[in-house]
Each structure stands twice: as structure tokens, then as C-alpha cells.
Amino acid sequence: MICDHLNISKERFREEYVTHRWGDPSIREKPNGECLFYDPVTARCAIYKVRPSQCRTWPFWEDILESPGEWKRASRRCPGIDQGRLWTEEEIRSILEDSR
């Protein structure tokens, strides 16, 4: 769990790091839109090993996979999309099933 990794209480974690602006709880963002746990110095996630399912499944979210246009729109916000290896449909399905 993230709060265990950070050695803080669940209450403190919710107060400092969680937002409900998208409806469901999610990690807050910095004013520039970056996740609070993104470290620009290392260009890595500071909580990668314990990241939540919203991060584990990105960018394979249903609305992004809906069409090539949605994928392209998401890629404009995320420099990691279309970088690295190509994931197979089977791998993507497995990622999504494991997150449920």
C-alpha cells in the first residue's frame, strides 16, 4: 500500500495526495499536470513498486483504447505513449484483467 510505503497514515495520505475531481479517488496532480509522485529529476515514479491500478493500467484505459483518435489525444498529454516496445492485445488484456 502507498501509505505504508510512505510511512504515513491512511488519513494523511487521503488529505495530502488524493483528489475526487474526476469522480473516483485518484492521486492529485502538480499545477503543471504531473502526478505528485513523478520525479522530474529521475523521470521516474517515486512510488513505482506500489503504484495504484490507475497507473499500472495506463495508457490501456478503455476510453483511450476506444479509437486511434483517443490514443493520439492521450499521447499528446503523455510523452511515454508510443515509446518503447509494442504491446500485444493479449498482454494488454492480461494487464487489465490483473488490475480487477
Describe the protein in words:
This protein has helices at residues 2-6, 10-17, 53-56, 62-65, 68-77, 89-98, and strands at 18-22, 24-27, 38-39, 44-45. It is of the alpha+beta class and 100 residues long. It folds into 2 domains: 1-47, no CATH class; 57-100, no CATH class. The strands form 2 sheets. The protein has a two-stranded antiparallel sheet with strand order 1-2. A two-stranded antiparallel sheet has the order 3-4. The protein is globular and about 40 Å long. The two termini are 16 Å apart. 1% of the residues are buried.
- Mean pLDDT metric: 90
What is the strand content? 5-15%
pLDDT under 50 segments (min length 5)?
none
Number of helices: 6
For the termini, the CA-CA separation is 16 Å
Number of domains: 2
Series of H and E elements: HHEEEEHHHH
Share of residues in helices: 40-55%
Largest sheet: 2 strands, antiparallel
The backbone outline, from C-alpha atoms, is: globular
Widest sheet, order of strands: 1-2
Radius of gyration over all CA atoms, rounded: 15 Å
- The tally of beta strands, per DSSP, is 4
Structural class: alpha+beta
Oligomer: single chain
List keywords for this structure.
single chain; 100 residues; alpha+beta; two-stranded antiparallel ribbon; 13% strand; globular
Task: Provide a concise account of the structure shown.
With 100 residues, this protein is of the alpha+beta class.
